[in-house]
Amino acid sequence: MKGTVKMLAPVSGQAIEMTEVHDPMFSEKAMGEGFGVIPNDQTIVAPVSGKVMLVASTKHAVGFSTDDGFEVLVHMGVDTVELNGAPFELFVKEGDTVKAGDTIATMDIDAIKKAGKVTDVIVAITNTAKMVKDIQVNKGDVQAGAAVATVEPMAPGEATAKPKGKVDYDQLGKDIVKNVGGVENVENVIHCITRVRFYLKDDNKANDDVIKNMKGVLDVAKAGGQYQVVIGPAVEDVYDAVVKALGPSFGGDSDAPKQEKVAAPKGVWPKTKFYFSALIGVITASMMPIIGLLAASGILKGLLALIVSAKWLSATSSTYMIINAMGDSVFYFLPILVGFTAAKRLGANQIIMGVIGGVLAYPTLVQVATKTSSTAMNINSNFFGIPIHIANYTYSIFPMIAAAWIAAKIEPWLKKHIVMSLRMILSPLLEVFIVSAIIIVVVGPIITLLSSYLAAGIVALLKISPAISGLIIGGLYQCLVIFGLHWAVIPVVASQIATTGHSALNAIVSATMVAQGAAAMAVFVKTKKNIDMKQIAGAATLSAFAGVTEPAMYGINLKYGRIFWTANIGSAVGGLITGLLHVDMWGFAGSLIGFASFINPKGIDGSFTGYLIASAATIIVAFTCTYLFGFKEEDLESSHAVEKVRLGSREPAAN
């Protein structure tokens, strides 16, 4: 490289040497050579021409890559990451190309000072070791965009030798956690663009000298109530390793037993039970954070259906549409919520999984999916010329569980194979593309194909015998809900109502909802000490009786195993009686709140009476079986202990 490189002042103010900036990490040149400016204006300009390679989520830092190979970081203020972007407005994004002197941001100096932070704007050449031979800084008053530093590049082959050997981030994470006082001393941990920031219960327990001398650590700083371990560009890798060492529950019980990854037992049946149990564990853990919201939304939807049935409100009114949106939005956008929670459970990036959930719930794709039957493999689109069937993923759970599992496998591979300077852009881009494509092109069509076979089987079963079909469908229907295969039933119900005005199949489905609610009610009645579980069970009961079984299933019944099957025994009995008494429904709303759907428009007949008998029998059987055989309050404690072990390792374990 010939000649010198001029660097411009990023802001008007007082130019200072890098050793004079008010941040020990930068002043000690841990991030490389450079300079600082104490600003007297709010306009920030690019100090070099190049491509924007990094924009901090908190807007306080922007990274550039020049054509000459320099990597330049503009850091606005000291510890301003804690202000969550409030004082800053950015005018560039990752991937943009800028010229030296172009305006890239503004910073509210007064707001930064009021927050007790230092306003220094720092320019650092982060690849100094292989690029910079010398730098001269013109100190004093300077205007934004004026030349303030002259950099003499290294000649080819002159770069400072790199330390031998790679940093073992997993070991570094463990060592850092140990020397900040252990898991029990950590309340929380976050990271910014260069530092892992701990909130410690007692800073005095941290061993500064040991941490400073660790390979991969540049320095230690204390500011704003945080214990900051300065890492540099590899901060995300170290942060991930620290999180892995801590476990998701930061500052959790250090005495909790540690669990290694459990090997599957030998034998086909034991292995099947093991992996199915692990899957159920992941599903229930992913659903638990939103159970309360699902229950509340289910109750609201049930009440709205009741109001419409009573003719108090028209289903075409604006009031109905607004209230329906309030109750239905959590189910419509369930892929986003499940993506976020499943990612936390399986160790994938939560934000990226939320975006993938948004892809599956994207209105345009939903419109394509709803134009064709969900129980037939109709080709309704193409992907790079490949004919595919796009399924409807709203209200779905299992596809996002699969997506989070795939993402958890892909992310480490991407981190390993993408250079650090491009990782922030390329890794999320590739992950969203790959995982979304796998779900849409592979997983969705497989579920749809299975649904089509199930639909055909259900129709054939209904023709054999109402009683037998009621027994089998009633006993197994909620199993389909776990994997989203219950969508196979909806078109059949719609077809029955459209052609005959009523549906015997929907009456059987209604009994399964009642059974799940009755099982949750037994848990509510039998729980004496655990107030949290009693509250969940009470809300889940009301939601199931209002026609939404997810809170009961994922919050209680599946989670504790036997309860789900005792509920299914009640479902089977309810389905059998429904079939024997030839119960029909004239609407979609089921369970107890949908009683009006069982009234024949021509007048009350045997269907309504049969509905009452079947519902009563379902409640009695499901409640009694669960109360006597399905649930013991001691199960809560043992299950809680198992879950704590699971969360500590992020590995699925058998229930």
If you had to describe this structure to a student in words, what would you say it looks like?
The chain is α+β, with helices and mostly antiparallel strands. The chain is built from 22 helices and 20 strands. The strands form 5 sheets. An 8-stranded antiparallel beta sheet has the order 9-5-6-7-11-3-2-13. A 4-stranded antiparallel beta sheet has the order 15-16-18-17. β5 (50-55) and β6 (61-65) form a beta hairpin. α20 packs antiparallel against α21. The radius of gyration is 30 Å and the shape is elongated.
Question: How many separate domains make up the residues?
Answer: 3
Distance between the termini: 62 Å
Mean pLDDT: 84
Q: Helix coverage percent of residues?
A: 40-55%
Number of helices: 22
Shape: elongated
**Largest sheet, strands/sense/barrel:** 8 strands, antiparallel
The helix-and-strand class reads: alpha+beta
Residues in β-strands, percent: 15-25%
Query: Would you identify the regions where 5 or more consecutive residues have pLDDT less than 50?
Result: 160-164, 251-261, 637-655
